[in-house]
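hi! just following up on the protien thing from before. the input was this:
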Amino acid sequence: MSQLKDNCQELTNLLLELKNLKSEFDLAYQEALVSRDLTKLRGLKMQIESEVSKLEVKADPFNVAFEVDLRKKLAEQSNLDFVGAFHEGWALVKNGVEYFYIDRTGKEIGPVMFSPVRYDYAQNFSNGLAWVVISGKYFYIDYTGKEISVERYDDATDFKEGLAGVKRGKEWFFINPAGQAINLERYDDVGNFSEGLARVIKKHTQWFYINHAGQEISAERYDGAEDFHEGLARVRKDNKWFYINRVGSELVLKDYDFVGDFVGGLAVARKDKKYLYIDHSGKEIISAKYNAAGGFVEGLAWVREGEKYYFIDRTGQEISAERYDRVGNFSEGLALVREDNKYYFIDRAGRAINPEKYDFAENFSEGLARVTKDGKWFYIDHAGRKIFEGELP
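and the predicted 3d structure came back as:
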């Protein structure tokens, strides 16, 4: 009964978090409507859908359990090495050295009158398209398995906000879902589009940002640059990290040796070799006292004092008195921790999900985590139960 009560309370907390998130986004959306910033609206809409989807999955353990059972059944029925998580209705699977996609009935993507195509490697669907590899060349397919163009590339990224970065030779450029380049510009390296903007670098000089049309947002150049999060991007110049907004204006003064991405309104920063947390205005919310710190993920962040790690909430309160040798971020309400060279998972209250300790483990994704023990790989669910063996695609 105690476990059921705890699960109900966690579900209640997640639903409240979802409600608050939707309220925050509704307010920001109205502000964007008033400003008539259509690019911001598109980016914000995609962020809303992504974040709400993540929280709804976490808030519904029955859906997670159903997906895990379905993937196990499909793998056993078709004798597949592994059935990956479903993305946009399709799961990436592996059989021997071949990759392909199936729907929730086990039906494979591919032409009706011909044998379905198998790939040397592949990625999950994003924005309706997925990149696949045959003979070392990258190209994109849609949900039917149809190629979007005859073009082949030496490297490729996922479609984000309707655009993807592709590489031919040593040059990167962006294409739309029809496989057409958005402009004639070529870059040495690119990042994904995030909140309507992408970071790029050309002629081996410095980073800058472009919009969906390929236009530069400002003449500023940076030694380092990261994706936009919550309307801000962190950039580096003259060995100092700071933030810029979507028009390239500096928002936070260069007071810190390092700053992280904003997540849930807070970002980690470093000053005088100590880590702290700041809000969008640069105000210190959690004071500098940590030797290392991570960003807030699912409302919790890992920190280190001395040689030991632990977790805090957004007020700086510790979730438990436990200390660990190493930790990872929370994912699906669980975090991977290590003590005495053994790995296990804890919940948001700091409790181990089961008594098992593993030789190695990876974070949970779509209800499953891959772990190894005594030289064997297998998968566990949120309760720590062994599901099936296989290789991660």
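The first strand starts at residue 82 and ends at 87.
The first helix runs from residue 2 to 35.
cheers
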